[in-house]
Amino acid sequence: SGHGTYFLKSGNRYEGQWAHGKQSGHGTYFFKSGDRYEGQYKNRERHGPGVYVHASGKSEKRAYDNGKQI
User: Fold this and answer.
1) Which contacts qualify for 8-14: CB closer than 8 Å, 24 or more apart?
2) Residue 60: predicted pLDDT
3) Contact 19, 4 (CB under 8 A)
4) Has residue 26 got a pLDDT over 90?
5) Is the CB of residue 42 less than 8 Å from the CB of residue 27?
6) pLDDT tens digits, one per residue of 54-66
7) Is the pLDDT of residue 1 over 90?
8) Which residues contact 9 (CB under 8 A, 6 or more apart)?
9) Which DSSP helix (H) or strand (E) runs through 38?
10) What is the pLDDT of residues 29-49, one digit of tens each?
């Protein structure tokens, strides 16, 4: 539990809260492309409200339920 950063082989990374070794709570997922997603996670999945920010700066509000966009 706590806060940390996870680097993926793809060049993407997650920075944020963890619980029981899983992404849980508020976090930001950074894509190698320069895009990022800022929002809530639960058991490694996007869960709840968030914002997807494109490398261009354009942003979109999004919501997820256990990893599925709603």
Assistant:
1) none
2) 97
3) no
4) yes
5) no
6) 999 999 999 999 9
7) no
8) none
9) strand 36-42
10) 999 999 999 999 999 999 999
Q: What is the largest CA-CA distance in the chain?
A: 35
Pair of tokens at residue 39: 């929002």
Residue 68 CB neighbour total at 10 angstroms? 10
Residue 48 amino acid letter: G
The residue type of 8 is: L
- Determine if residue 11 is left, alpha or beta; phi over 0 gives left, psi from -120 to 50 gives alpha, anything else beta: left
Give residue 5's Cα distance to chain centre.
11
Contact criterion met (CB below 8 Å) for 64 and 51: no
Contact 16, 25 (CB under 8 A): yes
